[in-house]
Design brief:
This protein has 13 helices and 13 strands. It is an alpha/beta fold. The protein has a domain of 207 residues: Rossmann fold (3-Layer(aba) Sandwich), CATH 3.40.50.1100. It has a 6-stranded mixed beta sheet with strand order 4-5-13-10-11-12, sandwiched between helices. It has a 4-stranded parallel beta sheet with strand order 8-7-6-9, sandwiched between helices. A 3-stranded antiparallel beta sheet has the order 2-1-3, with no helix packed on it. It starts with a strand and ends in a 16-residue tail after the last strand. Bound molecules: pyridoxal-5'-phosphate. Pyridoxal-5'-phosphate binds next to helix 9.
């Protein structure tokens, strides 16, 4: 059973009913976060029972928002391997390097976690049609989970989105509209048509449940490391759902009594062509200014303005973490090194975490003996254009 109690605004802390359809906080237009009765969960839920559960993210159902198990839409999302990166570690003089490999998720990225949760909860609350503006992986994941229970999916993509992303959505039965413009233009169009037709929008952090799917990465790292968190987690950041989600998960885990107060230093990596979070982190700002003329081959990192900016910045500061940016040239070359040394075809966003690690080892911010987890957030198969950027 789910111990979901209510939704709470992450900025003003006002509480809302969790069993009706909600989007942003009506007062301050910022994200709503799901809260659980963790006291009760702590009494009745023992972490040792996890060993008998299915190896997917639904093994943490007590702290997930879906109430009726039959409404959980499953394709095998989550419980991805935490690979020990031996050869890559050796090349960097490190003994404790790991890659959380999200490329093996359904639809080839960790977007499956968030969209599995958001679409399941929308389905449970009676939604019939869903819409998303997306530059890639989110659209494919939404299309897949909508298809599985027969919800109608509408996708708005910039025309320059790589073909495999478009083809995936079409194959999965979504109604795909290509927009001659940027992701922000797609957002406006999706909102306009969505409002007209009553489609529910599942944009990141603009509904409360994608983050609940993404937070399971935090539960998994804890479980897979036998309830001891690593020293550093390096995360390629777009909207920041995963970063904020894991930070939330660690807090919940401590309240459940499953981990102690040790926290990893959280690193947010973005591309030099779109780095609003590192810039705001360095400036000491609470919110991030929108980035002008955002450009990077790592589509998942091309998010010029995020509604959860203050939550990312909070997590970085509370964890003694840092925001760093890397060039497209660096991240694509790192993508190839990660792939060829460890045998998983990484995406460019995954490569960005390795490039960030190399920079932080060079400055001494990370010590070679520390335990570090890199996130490969998706498969490299959907980005043919990166090969044009390689210097060999
Ligand atoms: C969406 C995406 C990201 C960014 O994830 P957020 O949690 O939204 O910051 C990183 N990598 C890939 C492959 C993505 O699709």
């Amino acid at each position: 059973m789910s111990y979901l109690t209510f939704l709470e605004c992450a900025l003003c802390s006002k509480q809302y009913n969790a069993d009706t359809v909600q989007t942003l906080c009506p007062e301050c237009k910022r994200p709503l976060l799901a809260r659980y009765d963790l006291e009760a969960a702590k009494k009745n839920w023992d972490r040792d029972c996890l060993s008998t559960r299915e190896p997917n993210m639904w093994r943490y159902r007590e702290v997930l928002p879906v109430r009726d198990e039959s409404k959980a839409i499953k394709l095998g999302e989550g419980f991805t391997p935490l690979l020990s990166a031996q050869r890559l570690g050796d090349s960097l003089g490190m003994q404790n390097l790991y890659i959380k490999d999200e490329g093996v998720n359904p639809t080839g990225s960790f977007k499956a976690r968030g969209l599995s949760m958001a679409i399941s909860r929308a389905y449970e609350l009676g939604i019939k049609e869903v819409v998303v503006p997306s530059a890639g992986n989110a659209a494919g994941a939404m299309s897949a989970y909508a298809a599985r229970v027969g919800l109608k999916a509408h996708v708005f993509m910039p025309v320059d989105v790589p073909l495999p992303f478009q083809q995936e959505c079409r194959a999965l039965g979504a109604n795909v509209t290509l927009i001659d413009g940027l992701i922000t233009d797609c957002g406006h169009e999706a909102k306009k048509l969505g409002d007209e037709h009553g489609w529910f929008a599942v944009s990141t952090l603009k509904e409360p449940y994608r983050i609940e799917g993404k937070k399971t990465m935090g539960y998994e790292i804890a479980e897979q490391r036998n309830w001891k968190l690593p020293d550093v987690i390096i995360y390629p950041t777009g909207g920041g759902t995963g970063l904020i989600g894991m930070w939330k998960a660690f807090d919940e885990l401590e309240q459940l009594g499953w981990i102690d107060s040790h926290r990893p230093r959280m690193v947010s990596v973005q591309a030099e062509g779109c780095a609003p979070i590192p810039r705001a982190f360095e400036a000491g700002d609470e919110f991030a200014e929108p980035w002008q003329n955002a450009a990077t081959v790592a589509a998942g990192l091309r998010v010029p303005a995020a509604v959860g900016d203050f939550l990312m910045l909070r997590a970085l500061r509370e964890s003694n973490g840092i925001g760093v940016s890397v060039s497209d040239d660096q991240l694509v070359n790192a993508q190839m090194r990660m792939s060829s040394l460890e045998g998983t075809f990484a995406c460019p966003e995954g490569g960005a975490t390795l490039a960030a690690l190399e920079n932080l080892l060079a400055t001494g911010w990370i010590k070679p003996e520390e335990e570090v987890v890199l996130f490969n957030t998706g498969t490299g198969l959907k980005y043919p254009a990166v090969f044009d950027l390689l210097n060999d």
